[in-house]
Design goal:
mainly beta, 29-stranded parallel beta sheet, elongated
């Protein structure tokens, strides 16, 4: 027994020496410098100190912001490589810019290839056209950040261009816009991930998009979208022939002159699972609207109704053009039409509930297999 114990210790010693002699893994080292900025100065002084720290930061620097209001006085932060900016909490650390610079009216700009993070703060922007954060980097991360925007003509919370950036607990609030508003603008390729994010917009005069997607393939998960009392409200807009959006555990509530929970168009594709979309309007309202787009829906709910006056233009699901919908174990509830296929593609429902009239197929077929209505009576193969 004594000899076996010595042998075991000898083997463990060799393994330990081997591990100690192993080369370090490639990648950036941990922070070597931490710049602490006091937030108890005047807002303009705080902003100047922050801009100076960003300009002087070398690789592997953490810029730590104490509680306070940091006014960039119309300037923007251009994030350096391997630099993180950390606030002391999004309720007590605010970075603001009136965005008087050009050409990109964004408070924080992150170029392609930049490895960095924003966390624990609020980004506040106000201008004619205002953007909170713009990134083109696959290595960029935002965690626990509020983005608040007030703009005269266009307000955008976060822009992701051709990148697979990651956003976790990013809350975008549009305080008002005389033009359009977008919470998360994703385009130009890439597969970014939005997790546990939030969008809230009111007092937008024209169009409001919770998530706008164009020729990209994001994953949107555990996210809540509210767009209320605006002009045209869309929870998630999916566009472009190379787009395949994945939507999981998302809840969207839209209410305006024109309201759509999720719209898929121009041969784009969407996969929707375990999500709820609510749309209310006295004009046009749709839970899911496919216009030359395709969707696969599983275990989801679409609730659509008029606001104050009965409208026939209220659809749980509506298809136009060469659109296709495959739905399984999902619910479509409307005060007028549960589903209408006015296109040339197919709308197929399996093990689903349709509450409301199945509008006669104007062009494409409606197919129900083991589907049922609000009284739990089985529907026939033609959804009637």
């Amino acid at each position: 027994m004594h000899r076996q114990k010595n042998t075991t210790l000898w083997i463990l010693s060799l393994l330990a020496l081997g591990l100690l002699a192993a080369p370090a893994l490639a990648g950036p080292p941990p922070f070597t410098t931490t710049e602490l900025i006091a937030g108890n100065n005047a807002p303009g002084v705080n902003g100047a100190l922050l801009l100076a720290a960003v300009a002087a930061a070398g690789p592997n620097t953490l810029i730590k912001l104490e509680p306070g209001f940091y006014d960039l006085q119309g300037q923007q932060i251009v994030l350096p490589n391997f630099v993180d900016i950390e606030g002391s909490g999004r309720d007590i650390t605010t970075v603001f810019s009136s965005l008087t610079f050009s050409p990109t009216p964004t408070v924080v700009d992150v170029a392609a290839g930049i490895n960095g993070e924003l966390r624990d703060m609020t980004i506040l922007a106000a201008a004619d056209t205002a953007v909170g954060v713009t990134t083109q980097s696959d290595e960029f991360l935002m965690t626990e950040v509020n983005v608040e925007i007030e703009a005269n003509s266009r307000a955008t919370g976060v822009i992701i261009r051709g990148a697979s950036a990651r956003l976790d607990e990013v809350f975008v609030r549009i305080l008002g816009s005389n033009g359009n508003a977008t919470g998360f603008d994703i385009s130009g390729g890439g597969a970014p991930a939005l997790t546990s994010c939030l969008y809230f917009a009111t007092n937008v005069q024209r169009r409001s998009f919770g998530v706008f997607i164009d020729e990209a393939s994001p994953v949107i998960e555990s996210t809540i979208l509210f767009s209320l009392f605006n002009g045209q409200d869309t929870g998630i807009f999916v566009n472009g022939v190379t787009t395949e959006a994945t939507v999981r555990n998302v809840r969207a509530t839209v209410q305006g002159d024109d309201a759509t929970g999720i719209k898929v168009q121009k041969l784009a594709n969407a996969r929707v699972k375990e999500s709820t979309f609510q749309a209310r309007s006295d004009g046009f309202a749709a839970g899911i609207f496919l216009e030359e787009g395709n969707a696969k829906v599983t275990e989801s709910t679409f609730e659509v109704s008029s606001l104050f006056f009965f409208s026939l233009n209220v659809f749980g699901a509506v298809l136009r053009g060469p659109a296709n919908l495959d739905s399984n174990q999902s619910n479509y509830e409307s005060t007028s039409f549960a589903v209408q296929n006015a296109g040339t593609g197919q709308a197929r429902f399996g093990a689903s509930q349709l509450i409301g009239t199945a509008s006669p197929a104007l062009a494409g077929p409606l197919v129900c297999v083991h589907a049922y209505n609000g009284a739990y009576a089985a529907l026939n193969n033609f959804c009637n």
